[in-house]
Specification:
Helices cover 20% and strands 40% of the residues. By secondary structure, the chain is an alpha+beta fold. It has one domain. The strands form three sheets. Strands 5, 7, 8, 9, 10 and 12 form a six-stranded antiparallel β-sheet that branches. It has a five-stranded mixed β-sheet with strand order 1-2-3-4-6, covered by helices on one side. Helix 1 runs antiparallel to helix 2. The chain is globular and about 75 Å long.
Amino acid sequence: MRNKLYILILSSLFLPLTIQAQFVQKKYYESMVDSINLMTDFINSNSGDIERYAMNEVLKETIFNILTDDNSINFKLDSLKHISNITPSNKSFRLMTWLFKREDGNFESYGLIQTYNKRRKKYFVIPLEDVSTKLPSAEHLKLEGESWYGAVYYHFVETKINNKEYYTLIGWNGNTPFTQKKILDVLSFKANGMPVWGATIFKKHPHGRIYRLIFEYSTASSFFLNYDKQSYEVRTGKRDKKTRKPIYKSIKTDMIIFDRLGPLVEHMTNVYEYYVPETNVFDAFINDNGRWYYQEDVDARNPMPKRRQRRKETTPVRDKDFYKAP
Protein backbone atom coordinates (compact mmCIF):
# COMPACT_ATOMS: atom_id res chain seq x y z
CA MET A 1 0.00 0.00 0.00
CA ARG A 2 2.82 2.36 0.92
CA ASN A 3 4.66 1.59 -2.35
CA LYS A 4 1.55 2.40 -4.37
CA LEU A 5 1.26 5.70 -2.52
CA TYR A 6 4.87 6.59 -3.35
CA ILE A 7 4.29 5.78 -7.02
CA LEU A 8 1.17 7.93 -7.08
CA ILE A 9 3.01 10.87 -5.49
CA LEU A 10 5.96 10.58 -7.89
CA SER A 11 3.62 10.36 -10.87
CA SER A 12 1.81 13.51 -9.79
CA LEU A 13 5.15 15.32 -9.53
CA PHE A 14 6.50 14.27 -12.94
CA LEU A 15 3.26 14.51 -14.94
CA PRO A 16 3.35 18.34 -15.26
CA LEU A 17 6.99 18.12 -16.43
CA THR A 18 6.04 15.52 -19.07
CA ILE A 19 3.15 17.64 -20.32
CA GLN A 20 5.41 20.70 -20.46
CA ALA A 21 8.06 18.77 -22.43
CA GLN A 22 5.45 17.57 -24.91
CA PHE A 23 4.18 21.13 -25.34
CA VAL A 24 7.72 22.40 -26.01
CA GLN A 25 8.33 19.63 -28.55
CA LYS A 26 5.03 20.34 -30.28
CA LYS A 27 5.93 24.01 -30.63
CA TYR A 28 9.37 23.06 -31.95
CA TYR A 29 7.94 20.84 -34.70
CA GLU A 30 5.35 23.47 -35.60
CA SER A 31 8.16 26.02 -36.05
CA MET A 32 10.13 23.54 -38.18
CA VAL A 33 7.08 22.96 -40.39
CA ASP A 34 6.82 26.73 -40.88
CA SER A 35 10.50 26.84 -41.88
CA ILE A 36 10.10 23.94 -44.30
CA ASN A 37 7.09 25.63 -45.90
CA LEU A 38 9.14 28.78 -46.50
CA MET A 39 11.83 26.65 -48.13
CA THR A 40 9.42 24.80 -50.41
CA ASP A 41 7.71 28.07 -51.35
CA PHE A 42 11.10 29.32 -52.55
CA ILE A 43 11.90 26.04 -54.33
CA ASN A 44 8.59 26.37 -56.20
CA SER A 45 9.13 30.04 -57.04
CA ASN A 46 10.39 31.54 -60.30
CA SER A 47 13.96 31.87 -59.00
CA GLY A 48 16.79 30.28 -60.96
CA ASP A 49 17.84 26.66 -60.67
CA ILE A 50 21.12 27.43 -58.87
CA GLU A 51 19.42 29.28 -56.01
CA ARG A 52 16.62 26.73 -55.76
CA TYR A 53 19.03 23.77 -55.79
CA ALA A 54 20.91 25.38 -52.91
CA MET A 55 17.67 25.75 -50.97
CA ASN A 56 16.75 22.16 -51.79
CA GLU A 57 19.99 20.99 -50.13
CA VAL A 58 19.09 22.96 -47.01
CA LEU A 59 15.61 21.42 -47.11
CA LYS A 60 17.00 17.86 -47.31
CA GLU A 61 19.34 18.50 -44.38
CA THR A 62 16.55 20.08 -42.32
CA ILE A 63 14.17 17.15 -42.86
CA PHE A 64 16.99 14.67 -42.18
CA ASN A 65 17.73 16.34 -38.84
CA ILE A 66 14.05 16.29 -37.86
CA LEU A 67 13.63 12.62 -38.72
CA THR A 68 16.74 11.53 -36.82
CA ASP A 69 14.81 12.31 -33.64
CA ASP A 70 12.90 9.12 -32.82
CA ASN A 71 10.15 11.11 -31.15
CA SER A 72 9.35 12.95 -34.39
CA ILE A 73 7.29 9.94 -35.53
CA ASN A 74 4.67 10.94 -32.94
CA PHE A 75 4.07 14.34 -34.57
CA LYS A 76 1.90 14.48 -37.68
CA LEU A 77 3.65 17.38 -39.45
CA ASP A 78 0.34 17.73 -41.29
CA SER A 79 0.69 21.39 -42.28
CA LEU A 80 3.44 20.79 -44.82
CA LYS A 81 3.04 22.31 -48.28
CA HIS A 82 4.42 20.74 -51.49
CA ILE A 83 5.70 17.71 -49.54
CA SER A 84 3.95 14.36 -49.29
CA ASN A 85 4.05 13.01 -45.73
CA ILE A 86 3.00 9.39 -45.21
CA THR A 87 2.89 7.56 -41.88
CA PRO A 88 0.96 4.30 -41.38
CA SER A 89 -1.21 3.51 -38.39
CA ASN A 90 1.53 1.47 -36.68
CA LYS A 91 4.09 4.31 -37.03
CA SER A 92 6.66 1.90 -38.43
CA PHE A 93 7.94 4.51 -40.89
CA ARG A 94 7.52 8.01 -42.24
CA LEU A 95 7.98 8.67 -45.96
CA MET A 96 8.44 12.25 -47.15
CA THR A 97 8.72 13.00 -50.87
CA TRP A 98 8.63 16.07 -53.08
CA LEU A 99 9.37 17.22 -56.63
CA PHE A 100 11.74 19.83 -58.01
CA LYS A 101 10.74 21.42 -61.31
CA ARG A 102 13.76 22.63 -63.27
CA GLU A 103 13.82 25.67 -65.52
CA ASP A 104 13.81 23.37 -68.57
CA GLY A 105 10.46 21.90 -67.48
CA ASN A 106 11.80 18.53 -66.32
CA PHE A 107 11.09 17.24 -62.82
CA GLU A 108 13.37 15.64 -60.24
CA SER A 109 12.16 13.57 -57.27
CA TYR A 110 13.51 13.80 -53.74
CA GLY A 111 12.65 11.98 -50.56
CA LEU A 112 13.68 10.61 -47.19
CA ILE A 113 12.33 7.67 -45.24
CA GLN A 114 12.38 7.26 -41.48
CA THR A 115 12.19 3.54 -40.75
CA TYR A 116 12.27 1.31 -37.69
CA ASN A 117 14.86 -1.35 -36.91
CA LYS A 118 13.00 -3.93 -34.82
CA ARG A 119 16.19 -5.58 -33.57
CA ARG A 120 17.79 -2.37 -32.33
CA LYS A 121 14.42 -0.85 -31.43
CA LYS A 122 15.43 2.41 -33.03
CA TYR A 123 14.49 4.57 -36.02
CA PHE A 124 17.01 5.53 -38.69
CA VAL A 125 16.79 7.78 -41.75
CA ILE A 126 17.62 7.02 -45.40
CA PRO A 127 17.87 9.78 -48.04
CA LEU A 128 16.33 8.40 -51.23
CA GLU A 129 17.86 8.45 -54.71
CA ASP A 130 15.53 8.54 -57.69
CA VAL A 131 16.79 5.94 -60.18
CA SER A 132 13.75 6.06 -62.48
CA THR A 133 15.72 7.43 -65.45
CA LYS A 134 18.36 4.69 -65.11
CA LEU A 135 16.03 1.68 -65.26
CA PRO A 136 15.35 0.03 -68.64
CA SER A 137 12.31 -1.92 -67.44
CA ALA A 138 11.21 -0.41 -64.15
CA GLU A 139 7.93 -2.32 -63.85
CA HIS A 140 9.81 -5.62 -63.66
CA LEU A 141 12.52 -4.69 -61.14
CA LYS A 142 12.61 -4.78 -57.36
CA LEU A 143 14.56 -1.98 -55.69
CA GLU A 144 16.04 -1.79 -52.20
CA GLY A 145 17.35 0.78 -49.75
CA GLU A 146 17.89 4.29 -51.07
CA SER A 147 17.29 3.30 -54.73
CA TRP A 148 13.70 4.29 -55.46
CA TYR A 149 11.39 5.02 -58.41
CA GLY A 150 10.72 8.69 -57.75
CA ALA A 151 7.21 9.97 -57.10
CA VAL A 152 5.32 12.14 -54.68
CA TYR A 153 2.56 10.13 -53.03
CA TYR A 154 -1.01 11.23 -52.43
CA HIS A 155 -2.50 7.99 -51.09
CA PHE A 156 -1.46 4.61 -49.74
CA VAL A 157 -3.21 1.37 -48.81
CA GLU A 158 -2.07 -0.96 -46.02
CA THR A 159 -2.40 -4.71 -46.68
CA LYS A 160 -0.93 -7.86 -45.18
CA ILE A 161 0.19 -11.19 -46.67
CA ASN A 162 1.28 -13.99 -44.33
CA ASN A 163 1.62 -11.45 -41.50
CA LYS A 164 3.98 -9.30 -43.60
CA GLU A 165 2.88 -5.71 -44.14
CA TYR A 166 2.79 -4.16 -47.59
CA TYR A 167 2.02 -0.52 -48.37
CA THR A 168 0.66 0.16 -51.84
CA LEU A 169 1.69 3.69 -52.79
CA ILE A 170 -0.17 5.87 -55.29
CA GLY A 171 1.87 8.79 -56.61
CA TRP A 172 2.58 11.32 -59.33
CA ASN A 173 5.71 12.46 -61.16
CA GLY A 174 5.77 15.54 -63.39
CA ASN A 175 8.45 13.85 -65.56
CA THR A 176 9.09 16.06 -68.63
CA PRO A 177 7.46 18.97 -70.51
CA PHE A 178 5.79 16.35 -72.73
CA THR A 179 4.68 13.51 -70.45
CA GLN A 180 3.77 12.97 -66.82
CA LYS A 181 3.40 9.77 -64.82
CA LYS A 182 1.22 8.17 -62.19
CA ILE A 183 2.91 5.36 -60.27
CA LEU A 184 1.46 2.42 -58.40
CA ASP A 185 4.29 1.07 -56.24
CA VAL A 186 4.67 -1.17 -53.18
CA LEU A 187 6.74 -0.57 -50.06
CA SER A 188 7.73 -3.28 -47.60
CA PHE A 189 10.58 -3.71 -45.13
CA LYS A 190 13.27 -6.19 -44.21
CA ALA A 191 13.72 -7.21 -40.57
CA ASN A 192 16.45 -4.58 -40.15
CA GLY A 193 14.12 -1.83 -41.38
CA MET A 194 15.63 -1.45 -44.85
CA PRO A 195 12.92 -0.52 -47.39
CA VAL A 196 12.07 -2.74 -50.35
CA TRP A 197 10.43 -0.99 -53.30
CA GLY A 198 8.12 -3.09 -55.45
CA ALA A 199 6.47 -6.47 -54.95
CA THR A 200 4.79 -9.05 -57.16
CA ILE A 201 1.39 -8.59 -55.53
CA PHE A 202 -0.24 -7.34 -58.76
CA LYS A 203 -1.90 -10.33 -60.40
CA LYS A 204 -3.39 -11.07 -63.85
CA HIS A 205 -2.21 -7.79 -65.37
CA PRO A 206 -1.44 -7.76 -69.13
CA HIS A 207 2.15 -6.65 -68.39
CA GLY A 208 2.82 -9.98 -66.69
CA ARG A 209 4.90 -10.33 -63.52
CA ILE A 210 5.30 -6.75 -62.31
CA TYR A 211 6.65 -5.09 -59.18
CA ARG A 212 4.98 -1.75 -59.86
CA LEU A 213 2.80 -0.15 -62.50
CA ILE A 214 3.73 3.05 -64.33
CA PHE A 215 1.18 5.08 -66.29
CA GLU A 216 2.77 7.62 -68.65
CA TYR A 217 0.59 10.07 -70.54
CA SER A 218 0.37 13.54 -72.09
CA THR A 219 0.98 16.62 -69.96
CA ALA A 220 -2.09 18.10 -71.64
CA SER A 221 -4.28 15.44 -70.05
CA SER A 222 -5.44 14.40 -66.57
CA PHE A 223 -5.40 10.76 -65.50
CA PHE A 224 -7.43 9.32 -62.63
CA LEU A 225 -5.77 6.83 -60.27
CA ASN A 226 -6.99 6.38 -56.71
CA TYR A 227 -8.41 4.06 -54.07
CA ASP A 228 -12.21 4.11 -54.15
CA LYS A 229 -15.39 2.06 -53.74
CA GLN A 230 -16.82 1.02 -57.13
CA SER A 231 -18.58 -1.95 -58.75
CA TYR A 232 -17.61 -4.78 -61.06
CA GLU A 233 -19.55 -7.68 -62.52
CA VAL A 234 -18.90 -11.42 -62.24
CA ARG A 235 -20.64 -14.39 -63.82
CA THR A 236 -23.08 -16.25 -61.60
CA GLY A 237 -22.74 -19.50 -63.57
CA LYS A 238 -26.39 -19.23 -64.59
CA ARG A 239 -28.02 -18.31 -67.90
CA ASP A 240 -31.16 -16.45 -68.80
CA LYS A 241 -33.84 -19.02 -69.66
CA LYS A 242 -35.03 -17.10 -72.72
CA THR A 243 -31.87 -15.61 -74.20
CA ARG A 244 -29.41 -18.17 -72.79
CA LYS A 245 -27.03 -15.31 -72.12
CA PRO A 246 -24.84 -15.49 -68.99
CA ILE A 247 -26.26 -13.81 -65.89
CA TYR A 248 -23.95 -11.47 -64.02
CA LYS A 249 -24.07 -10.03 -60.55
CA SER A 250 -22.62 -6.72 -59.43
CA ILE A 251 -20.12 -6.59 -56.57
CA LYS A 252 -19.34 -3.29 -54.89
CA THR A 253 -16.01 -3.08 -53.08
CA ASP A 254 -12.96 -0.92 -52.42
CA MET A 255 -10.46 -1.00 -55.27
CA ILE A 256 -7.65 0.90 -56.93
CA ILE A 257 -9.40 2.36 -59.96
CA PHE A 258 -7.84 4.10 -62.95
CA ASP A 259 -8.55 5.42 -66.44
CA ARG A 260 -7.60 3.23 -69.36
CA LEU A 261 -4.90 4.93 -71.41
CA GLY A 262 -4.44 4.78 -75.16
CA PRO A 263 -2.82 6.77 -78.00
CA LEU A 264 -4.83 9.47 -79.73
CA VAL A 265 -4.13 7.72 -83.02
CA GLU A 266 -3.24 4.05 -83.50
CA HIS A 267 0.20 4.54 -85.09
CA MET A 268 1.33 6.53 -82.01
CA THR A 269 1.56 3.39 -79.84
CA ASN A 270 4.29 3.79 -77.16
CA VAL A 271 4.67 7.51 -77.97
CA TYR A 272 3.39 8.54 -74.55
CA GLU A 273 3.08 12.26 -75.16
CA TYR A 274 0.03 11.28 -77.25
CA TYR A 275 -1.50 8.99 -74.62
CA VAL A 276 -4.77 10.13 -73.03
CA PRO A 277 -7.53 8.41 -71.02
CA GLU A 278 -10.25 6.68 -72.99
CA THR A 279 -13.70 8.18 -72.39
CA ASN A 280 -15.45 6.62 -69.39
CA VAL A 281 -13.42 3.39 -69.51
CA PHE A 282 -11.99 2.30 -66.17
CA ASP A 283 -9.95 -0.67 -65.01
CA ALA A 284 -9.04 -1.58 -61.46
CA PHE A 285 -7.11 -3.69 -59.00
CA ILE A 286 -9.27 -5.50 -56.45
CA ASN A 287 -7.78 -6.66 -53.17
CA ASP A 288 -7.96 -10.33 -52.25
CA ASN A 289 -6.01 -11.37 -49.13
CA GLY A 290 -3.43 -8.64 -49.61
CA ARG A 291 -2.86 -9.16 -53.34
CA TRP A 292 -4.22 -6.95 -56.12
CA TYR A 293 -6.12 -8.67 -58.95
CA TYR A 294 -6.58 -6.86 -62.24
CA GLN A 295 -10.19 -6.28 -63.32
CA GLU A 296 -11.13 -4.77 -66.67
CA ASP A 297 -14.14 -2.56 -67.39
CA VAL A 298 -15.12 -1.51 -63.90
CA ASP A 299 -18.56 0.05 -63.61
CA ALA A 300 -17.64 3.55 -62.47
CA ARG A 301 -21.15 4.99 -62.51
CA ASN A 302 -20.95 5.41 -58.75
CA PRO A 303 -20.15 9.01 -57.85
CA MET A 304 -16.44 9.40 -58.41
CA PRO A 305 -14.60 10.96 -55.48
CA LYS A 306 -13.77 14.62 -55.69
CA ARG A 307 -10.19 14.96 -56.80
CA ARG A 308 -9.21 16.19 -53.41
CA GLN A 309 -7.30 14.64 -50.57
CA ARG A 310 -9.06 12.11 -48.36
CA ARG A 311 -6.72 12.41 -45.43
CA LYS A 312 -4.43 15.05 -44.06
CA GLU A 313 -1.19 13.32 -45.03
CA THR A 314 -2.15 12.88 -48.68
CA THR A 315 -2.13 15.30 -51.58
CA PRO A 316 -4.73 16.15 -54.23
CA VAL A 317 -5.31 13.50 -56.86
CA ARG A 318 -5.66 15.74 -59.86
CA ASP A 319 -2.31 15.95 -61.60
CA LYS A 320 -1.86 19.65 -62.15
CA ASP A 321 -3.69 20.69 -59.00
CA PHE A 322 -1.08 18.90 -56.92
CA TYR A 323 2.09 20.57 -58.10
CA LYS A 324 0.61 23.43 -60.09
CA ALA A 325 2.31 22.08 -63.18
CA PRO A 326 1.81 24.29 -66.24
